[in-house]
Amino acid sequence: MEQLPMSLKIEYGLFKLDFTDYHAVLGIPVDADVKAVRQRYLQIARRLHPDSCKASTEAEKKQANLLLTRLVNPAYEQLSRGHRDYAASLSHLSKRLGAQGDKISLASATAKQLLQAGANLDNLYKTSVDHLASEQYQALDQALAKIAEISELNLVYLMCKSGKGETVKTSVSTPVKTQGTGVTQPNSQTSTAGTSQGGSVGPKGVSRVDSYIRRAEGYLVKNNFAAAVLELREALKLDQNNSDCHSLLGIAYLKQNKGTMAKVHINKALQLNPQNEKALKAKQILNELTPKSGGSQPKVSPEAAKGKPSNKSGGGLFGGLFGGKKK
Question: pLDDT tens for residues 38-48?
């Protein structure tokens, strides 16, 4: 299993047993299903991603990106794809914990309380994990401590369950079926769109791409551009030559006043499909916003970015791209 950099070392819970606790990283119970894994990942990614991170200092932004790329993305990759090795390791670890029992030392009061929960084990475990997860990434300098505390809860829960002879069905016990290269997988080393090396996409992959695109369009209508970007990046990992996906990603960047990134994806969309209507409209808007002298990044007015009417057209610069249609 991949070793964490020294700056992200955690010495408590399952981590001290030389096991990377991806459930603790995402702040979810060990028996969370794949849907819960995805929902939680999106919540965290929106908080940590460079496009939507609200950190006030450059150091905090770097810390947020480090947490995202070295912990959160790998955790989502493991738990959403159902890696059998991880599931097997977790199952083996659970049996070890059941056998060791009293030899395990705990640091957090929450974990010690859970150890004494008795018949209330399941309820107290879920409640405690949910509480810690709600504040897990609010203060970035406390994120590792929260992960460690959740991992201690996971350790106690697995130990108690194994001690009773009960098995825990983990979220990676039933992997998501994929076809070809059609897997939902964040790039653990970078947050730049479209860097995955794609291949042919089977029918299931195509339908999943469409689902991502539909959700992204819904987010764009609601002006939730960061969420739209996340959905579209996932789609590009399934099909990096999808013209619609590139055009929508260009629009999302354009609405966030990121003209350079917008230009890259709009041009890519038109390269793949010169007749793509959304890309053509976005290209026209991009040209209107680009200073004639060149050199500087296109600037989008606050009114245009929010889709408000302007003197350019009755529906605003972006009014014709979605026509108010919600999906």
Answer: 999 999 999 99
For the chain, what is the domain count? 2
Question: Which residues, including other chains, have CB under 8 Å from residue 20's CB and lie 6 or more apart?
Answer: 1, 2, 4, 74
Range of the structural domain that residue 80 is part of:
6-163
pTM for the complete prediction? 0.57
* Orientation angle between helical segments 225-238 and 203-221, nearest 10 degrees: 170
Least confident of 123-137, 177-191, 277-291, 304-318: 177-191
Token pair of 269 as six digits: 């969309």
Q: Is residue 181 within 8 Å of residue 41, measured between CB atoms? A: no
And the tokens for 285?
Answer: 């808007």
Asked if 20 contacts 2 with a C-beta cutoff of 8 angstroms, the reply is yes
Torsion of CA 14, 16, 21, 23, to 10 degrees: 50
> Is residue 35 located within the same domain as residue 121?
yes
Residue 78 · residue 1 · CB < 8 Å: no
Q: pLDDT tens-digit profile of 59-107?
A: 999 999 999 999 998 898 888 876 667 778 888 888 888 777 667 889 9
